[in-house]
Specification:
It is a single chain. The chain is mainly α. The chain has 3 domains: 1-103, Serine Threonine Protein Phosphatase 5, Tetratricopeptide repeat (Alpha Horseshoe); 104-189, Tetratricopeptide repeat domain (Serine Threonine Protein Phosphatase 5, Tetratricopeptide repeat, Alpha Horseshoe), CATH 1.25.40; 197-276, Serine Threonine Protein Phosphatase 5, Tetratricopeptide repeat (Alpha Horseshoe), CATH 1.25.40. It has helices at 21-34, 38-51, 56-68, 72-85, 90-102, 106-119, 124-136, 140-154, 160-174, 178-187, 194-208, 211-224, 229-241, 245-258, 263-275, 279-291, 299-309, 313-322, 331-334.
Length: 338
């Protein structure tokens, strides 16, 4: 489940005749931000903050502008200012959590997520926020416990049990429990989630080596959602594993253009370069994927292999030792690591 920085929107409207100037500026900033006019949004938020240095909504939204401008240091400073003014400011904490995730500062993100749950025990979203962090940290047992907690606490809300089951299946996949992942996907009352279930099962079948079954599933998923960048990326992986490298790269590049924030697309492109013998390019892409927190099961294998081919034995062995399944490595690599 992907989470995004919260866009703070006023929950009330005030006529311009009697509104405080800072709220007019905030409203103007929000409108410019919605149009992606970052320069004008920034000016209005800065003017609003000049009216009230602890105007947390403007500080938070100016932080969002900074994120969009890739100025993460400024974003962090602005969020800290907002939280200094109002320590339990919900949107500020959520934005700070997501910023930490984006920067792959996961221990800090986990701590913020725990604070959010403590402060807002009846807000379901904060539990799912923490679930994202735990999965990125590869803390799968803790994540599964949190799934059970979500299901027990919010089971009366329509669709929650389905969301939880999909998350459990995804966690099983990330933990290399591919048969169990498929079994859990099959238990999902899919409905509107049908394409996600198909995509998830396709990934598990790829890892099991059943590429024909994976291709059928991912093609149906793409028929249902032809513009889904994640599905396009996974179609690329199927093509790569089938040896159709050019077609695989076409799908991966399509996904990269549509969703450059997806860490897995860099991993798959690294896999393409690995298969074509372009090892320096492979290492660059795979390092990018790892720095973004990609948790796919084969990432360590691909990194180990590219270091092996580049004659980096120490780094290769480091990734071998991180891998859950060491049986997939060639003996020439394993002999130097075990």
């Amino acid at each position: 489940m992907e989470k995004y920085l919260v866009f703070v929107v006023l929950l009330f409207f005030i006529s311009c005749e009697n509104a405080n100037e800072k709220y007019v500026l905030l409203k103007n900033g929000n409108e410019f931000l919605a149009k992606n006019d970052l320069k004008k949004a920034r000016k209005n938020y800065e003017w609003a903050i000049s009216e009230d240095s602890c105007f947390v909504d403007a500080l938070c939204n100016l932080g969002l502008v900074a994120v969009e401008e890739k100025n993460f240091e400024e974003a962090a400073v602005l969020l800290d200012r907002a939280l200094t003014c109002v320590p339990d400011f919900y949107n500020g904490l959520v934005n700070k959590l997501n910023l930490k995730v984006q920067l792959n500062e996961l221990e800090a993100a986990k701590a913020i997520a725990s604070t959010l749950i403590e402060n807002n025990p009846d807000s379901m979203d904060v539990y799912f926020d923490k679930l994202v962090v735990l999965s990125k940290m590869h803390l799968y047992d803790e994540a599964l416990q949190l799934c059970n907690q979500i299901d027990a606490k919010f089971d009366s809300i329509p669709g929650v049990s389905t969301d939880v089951m999909i998350n459990k299946a995804n966690l099983m996949f990330l933990n290399s429990e591919f048969d169990l992942a498929i079994e859990m996907f099959d238990q999902v009352d899919s409905g509107a989630h049908y394409s996600k279930v198909l995509n998830g099962k396709a990934l598990a079948y790829i890892e099991k080596g059943n590429l024909d079954a994976a291709l059928v599933l991912i093609d149906v998923a793409l028929q249902l959602e032809p513009n889904n960048a994640l599905f396009s990326n996974n179609k690329g992986l199927v093509m790569l594993e089938m040896g159709q490298l050019d077609e695989g790269l076409t799908w991966i590049n399509k996904s990269l253009i549509e969703a450059p924030e997806n860490s897995w697309v860099y991993a798959y492109k690294g896999n393409y370069y690995l298969k074509t013998g372009a090892y320096p390019q492979a290492l660059e892409m795979l390092n990018q994927a790892e720095s973004m927190g990609a948790g796919l099961p084969k990432l360590y294998y691909w990194l180990a292999m590219v270091h092996f081919y580049l004659d980096h034995p120490t780094q290769a062995c480091d990734y071998v030792n991180k891998s859950a399944d060491k049986t997939i490595y060639p003996p020439a690599l394993l002999e130097g690591c075990l």
